[in-house]
Automatic annotation (TrEMBL):
Protein name: Iron-regulated ABC transporter permease protein SufD
Family: Belongs to the iron-sulfur cluster assembly SufBD family.
Domain SUF system FeS cluster assembly SufBD core: 137-364
Lineage top rank: taxon: Bacteria
Native source species: Stackebrandtia endophytica
Amino acid sequence: MSVTEQTATEARPNVTGAVETSDKVASHLHPEGSFNVEDHPMPNGREEIWRFTPLRRLAGALEHRPSDEGAAEYQVYEPEGIQVGTLAQGEAPRGSVLLPSDRAAAIASAETPQALHIKVPAETVVPEPVTVTVTGAADKRSNAHYVLQVGEFAKVTLLLDHRGSGVHTGNLEVLVGDGAEVTVVSVQDWARDAVHLGQHEAVIGRDASYKHIVVSLGGDLVRLNSNVRYAGTGASADLLGLYFADAGQHLEHRQFVDHNAPHTRSNVDYKGALQGQDARTVWVGDVLIRKVAEQIETYEINRNLVLTDGAQADSVPNLEIETGEIVSAGHASATGRFDDEQLFYLQSRGISETEARRLVVRGFFADLLGRIGIESVRERLTEAIEQRLEKAGV
């Protein structure tokens, strides 16, 4: 059976513990995916999935062409206990999780002849993060595709660290085995002229946990789709994000949680700060609760802190519910400036206005920073946030 045929298999049993595996998503906000680039026409900006993205700034990222020679350097740190290799197109498990939902993801798949394959055997605990560092070259285009395959009851953290310049499209598909614990941290710390489009997709096994953390600081334009679905009951997903847009930057994050199995859980929590003229952030979250997904729990929230005039944050939470037999489901969104009461409280205790504002921003991000389990990354991000506040005089 081919990869396409595997992902197209339909199974819709209406019994406790069932998993709905049809590739035809019932969501109104997500078109049917395809590996064929031509099935994803060049967007014009009127499409729902592209209406927030400034297409003129994509710098050719949607042109169907291979990577330029020397477009990016890839460094992989392989802790003991893992297996690293490659997967050709159509070679399982590549393509068993990710079905490209837009033109960029289809191009990244089609133009990556050999995907990086990271395999963690069953019951293996990897003590250090597996690290993939991508350093792009200026004025060049690169495509990438990664597959993380984690066996039953294994535990691992993967860090994707994006640096440098250029135009990059990258896919990640994650297979989380039953009872496994997987954390993925994706850092976008590009130079200011870079463009990055990506799709990250995970399938979570029975009683497994998956944490996906996105941190976007650099780049001219970054647009990431982070999606999950379930392969068994008891599975849990946490999708977390932290972003800080400076003048002229466009940072766009989209999440889709497909509750296609009963007794599953999800939590989406994204926070962003904006400063400077024409700083723009977009967050679109969507949770689909299918008919078979009884007794699930889900919540999604996005909060934005606007630090200066001239910045704009768009926040669009969505819930699509096809069954009423759920434990809880909710969503929230908030965008605002500094809390005057917090500033007054701090200043009344002798703290200057500038330092008070910095303390508020630090507190705003503190929870998410604390949930990044890699100390070196946490320190690096804290320093980067401080530098931005210093630059803005906040």
